[in-house]
């Protein structure tokens, strides 16, 4: 049997070496000059002239980024009242950093073992979203595995049903499964409850939604938009450098495919976020190249509202279990990721600190390293939890107001597209969402809290 690849085996063409100096790169960053990939490498490494991260230099990078944040967006820290409603964990793409997925064959009615995963019908999705909308949320984020029975819409289903080689296009009809996810357009329109903002369909999912056809990404995103899609999550980006994708997600769309799908979404008028998933096998050169690809995309589109660094959660993932990596990013690398994103992405206004990835204490620290957005309430979380993350699935408005005020910043409820904002007065409790279609300021309660309030029936 072939020996699996390990950390020591990895050699890359792109390495963190430059002709630039740290001091020069930092001076450019402070002056607001547009940074090059080499500048970013110097900042990420705190200088390629020495080994490891130099704490004093790191602090100077963080300070420059914090300064830029204050200049660019001021003292407000935003967050959104949202729900994560992921439709299915069935997926055969096989990304080695992912433990969200469950092998798609385990969902088949004929399977001998019961699947550990889930699939929701459009009706089930609607009920979950409707309940959250009643509680005041404004947005639903939905990202899913590439279930083989998923089709874009009825026309796509007909094409896939008639396909001469369904296996080659990763298709199996819904009848093969205990539960059918329906079509993407059915799911999107089911989740569009009372005009709630639907944030869904990553480039990887858009790829699945056109497999076996000659449809363009524009065509796919237009149909989804007609069904109620509002904005696109820019995940599936991981590291936008092929030599890294070959190691961590060889089955996934390429860098060019990801950029093509994002550009198409922008062309049909959809807003979007962008991400980087870092802290696995990549080096600082790859991180810098990724940032450049995102900045170029934003120069072309202008549709990216925020950039979300996602720190790799390693514990339960194949990459860790097979010794390809020995852990995730260090705290210093996390802080530099946020700071260099702020300094490099001069055309993206908002940088997110994700409490799912960093926890509260470190998440708050990130708000002084260049970040100005603190994610959302989400109510439910499966991706990080399944990978071994331990920072929970929900933050209330009271949590947000307390945390953001504690560092002297201004808590602001925002819409997903940042068009609407509401400044919250920390002296005026109770704190609840007000921007959602049914938001009247009542605090968002977890299901457990809400159930505990219902007087149990006598028995
Ligand atoms: C789980 S996928 C779901 C959507 C879709 N299947 C796709 O790949 O775009 C969404 C994103 O979660 C992130 N993710 C998955 N596993 C992760 C992990 N262990 N640590 C951090 N982020 C992770 C990746 O960036 C991935 O693109
Ligand atoms: N909506 C956001 C999330 N949601 C959590 C995800 O489901 C997931 O856990 C993970 O982040 C995927 O890597 N997470 C964010 O970091 N930012 C969001 O805006
Ligand atoms: N993929 C993650 C994280 C994420 C989502 C949307 C974003 O805009 C940014 C990040 C999620 O499902 O929630
Ligand atoms: S990251 Fe997305 S595409 Fe990759 S295995 Fe996980 S769910 Fe599937």
UniProtKB/TrEMBL annotation:
Pfam families in alphabetical order: CofH_C, Radical_SAM
Q: Which UniProt keywords apply?
A: 4Fe-4S, Iron, Iron-sulfur, Metal-binding, S-adenosyl-L-methionine
Q: Which GO terms describe its molecular function?
A: 4 iron, 4 sulfur cluster binding; 7,8-didemethyl-8-hydroxy-5-deazariboflavin synthase activity; metal ion binding
Region Disordered: start and end of each range? 422-459
List residues of the Radical SAM core domain: 77-349
Q: Which cofactor does it need?
A: [4Fe-4S] cluster
Q: Which residues form a coiled coil?
A: none
NCBIfam families from the UniProt entry: PRK07360.1
Q: What is this protein called?
A: 7,8-didemethyl-8-hydroxy-5-deazariboflavin synthase subunit CofH
Organism in which the protein naturally occurs: Natrinema pallidum
What lineage does the source organism belong to? Archaea, Methanobacteriati, Methanobacteriota, Stenosarchaea group, Halobacteria
| Encoding gene (name) | cofH
């Amino acid at each position: 049997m072939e020996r699996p690849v390990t950390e020591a085996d990895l050699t890359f063409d792109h390495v963190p070496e430059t002709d630039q100096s740290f001091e020069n790169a930092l001076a450019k960053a402070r002056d607001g000059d547009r940074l090059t990939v080499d500048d970013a490498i110097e900042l990420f490494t705190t200088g390629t002239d020495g080994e490891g991260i130099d704490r004093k230099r790191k602090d100077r990078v963080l300070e420059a980024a914090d300064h830029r944040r204050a200049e660019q967006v001021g003292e407000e820290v935003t967050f959104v009242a949202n729900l994560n409603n992921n439709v299915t964990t069935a997926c055969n793409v096989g990304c080695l950093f992912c433990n969200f997925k469950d092998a798609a064959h385990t969902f088949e009615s004929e399977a001998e073992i019961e699947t550990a995963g889930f699939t929701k019908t459009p009706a089930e999705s609607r009920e979950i979203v409707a309940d959250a909308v009643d509680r005041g949320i404004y947005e639903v984020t939905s990202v899913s595995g590439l279930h083989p029975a998923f089709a874009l819409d009825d026309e796509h289903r007909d094409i896939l049903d008639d396909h001469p080689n369904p296996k080659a296009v990763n298709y199996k009809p819904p009848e093969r499964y205990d539960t059918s996810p329906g079509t993407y357009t059915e799911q999107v329109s089911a989740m569009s409850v009372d005009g709630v903002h639907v944030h869904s369909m990553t480039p990887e999912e858009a790829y699945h939604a056109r497999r076996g056809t000659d449809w363009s990404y524009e065509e796919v995103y237009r149909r989804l938009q007609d069904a109620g899609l509002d904005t696109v999550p820019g995940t599936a980006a991981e590291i936008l450098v092929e030599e890294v994708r070959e190691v961590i997600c060889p089955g996934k769309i390429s860098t060019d495919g990801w950029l093509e799908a994002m550009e198409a979404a922008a062309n049909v008028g959809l807003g979007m976020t962008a991400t980087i998933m870092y802290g696995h096998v990549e080096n600082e050169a790859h991180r810098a190249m990724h940032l450049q690809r995102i900045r170029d995309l934003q120069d072309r589109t202008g549709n990216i509202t925020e950039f979300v660094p996602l720190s790799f959660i390693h514990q339960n993932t194949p990459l860790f279990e097979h010794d390809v990596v020995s852990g995730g990013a260090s705290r210093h690398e996390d802080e530099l990721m946020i700071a260099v994103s702020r300094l490099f992405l001069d055309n993206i206004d908002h940088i997110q600190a994700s409490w799912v990835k960093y926890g509260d204490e470190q998440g708050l620290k990130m708000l002084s390293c260049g970040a100005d957005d603190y994610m959302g309430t989400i109510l439910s979380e499966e991706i990080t939890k399944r990978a071994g993350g331990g920072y929970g699935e929900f933050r209330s408005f009271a949590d947000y107001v307390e945390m953001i005020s504690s560092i002297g910043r201004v808590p602001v409820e925002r819409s997903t597209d940042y068009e609407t904002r509401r400044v919250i007065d920390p002296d005026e409790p109770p704190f609840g969402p007000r921007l959602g279609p049914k938001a009247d300021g009542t605090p968002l309660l977890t299901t457990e809290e809400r159930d505990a309030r219902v007087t149990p029936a006598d028995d």
